[in-house]
Design the sequence.
């Protein structure tokens, strides 16, 4: 399977290549439609795709650097980081869905917490692991991954398992909230709607672009977006776990072509599913694409002078985005 020069096998190249191609295509589509779909959800998705693309590149790089100890160690540390980051960004998406359906107020501080969870937590785990082991076990003579001896592999398995467990709990809470009797029209959202509404109109929201939109339309939009995020987490997270598990086995047991074939299948399927869920089936992207073809006016920049201080357009919060979508619907 491995040539004497240490070049990656064809299956690893095909799996990583197809996955990267799908995710880069998704990033290009989002970049072209960014002014229409600019939101926290889109930022989370782009960061998630970046972590997977980086992981795939490092998997291929790591197969050719076993002869260089320092480069192999560095590659292993970054591979450990990006593996954990991909799990953490799925958890961030679940957290964002939970805050959306519970009517939490969104601030810049929350956005920074998203970044801390997505990139900061994996960096903390890797830094702690490297500090305790002094890079011992980061890379071996046969592969650039965590050594199977000494229990260092638990520095990846433990946090990943914890993220999966927490994500399952959040998913159950979000699903329960969506199917509850009151749905997302809870007291917090009603209270916020009352604060933003015209006098004597307790269940309406004032929209600068189109007048008044009912919280029923807003709640339907928020519920639709939350369900899409929940569906994404339920589908992507198992695929993510299977992909990285097969990747680890493919790197540590190069003699078995089975794990390399499994990695190629899961990795390619993972990229296809992410594009399908977040691009092809996402209504917001479909509307943005149609608007781009019709050369519609930018709904965000059109009202930026009245919506944002000093006339500078900013990243919209999920609540603002839901209001905007409900108005345009």
Sequence:
């Amino acid at each position: 399977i491995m040539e004497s020069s240490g070049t990656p096998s064809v299956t690893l190249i095909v799996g990583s290549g197809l996955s990267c191609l799908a995710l880069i295509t998704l990033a290009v589509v989002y970049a072209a439609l960014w002014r229409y779909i600019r939101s926290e959800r889109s930022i989370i998705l782009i960061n998630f795709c970046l972590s997977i693309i980086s992981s795939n590149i490092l998997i291929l790089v790591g197969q050719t650097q076993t002869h260089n100890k320092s480069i192999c160690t560095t590659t292993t540390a970054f591979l450990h980081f990006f593996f954990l980051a991909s799990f953490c960004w799925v958890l961030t998406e679940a957290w964002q869905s939970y805050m959306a359906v519970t009517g939490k107020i969104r601030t810049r501080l929350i956005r920074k917490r998203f970044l801390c969870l997505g990139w900061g937590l994996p960096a903390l785990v890797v830094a702690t692991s490297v500090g305790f082991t002094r890079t011992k076990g980061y890379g071996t003579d046969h592969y650039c991954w965590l050594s199977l001896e000494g229990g260092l592999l638990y520095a990846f398995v433990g946090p990943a398992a914890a993220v999966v467990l927490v994500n399952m709990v959040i998913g159950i809470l979000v699903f329960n909230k969506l199917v509850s009797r009151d749905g997302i029209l809870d007291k917090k959202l009603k209270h916020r709607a009352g604060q933003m509404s015209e006098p004597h109109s307790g269940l309406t929201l004032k929209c600068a672009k189109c007048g008044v939109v009912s919280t029923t339309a807003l709640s339907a939009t928020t519920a639709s977006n939350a369900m899409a995020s929940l569906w994404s987490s339920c589908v992507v997270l198992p695929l993510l776990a299977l992909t990285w598990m097969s990747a680890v086995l493919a790197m540590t047991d190069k003699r078995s072509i089975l794990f390399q074939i499994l990695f190629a299948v899961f990795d390619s399927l993972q990229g296809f599913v992410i594009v399908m869920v977040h691009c092809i089936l996402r209504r917001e992207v479909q509307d943005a694409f149609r608007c781009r073809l019709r050369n519609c006016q930018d709904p965000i920049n059109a009202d930026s002078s009245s919506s944002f201080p000093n006339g500078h357009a900013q990243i919209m919060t999920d609540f603002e985005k839901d209001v905007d979508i409900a108005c345009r619907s």
Observations:
- Residues 215-252 form the longest helix (38 residues).
- The chain has twelve helices and two strands.
- Residues 1-5, 181-218, 299-315 have pLDDT under 50 and may be disordered.
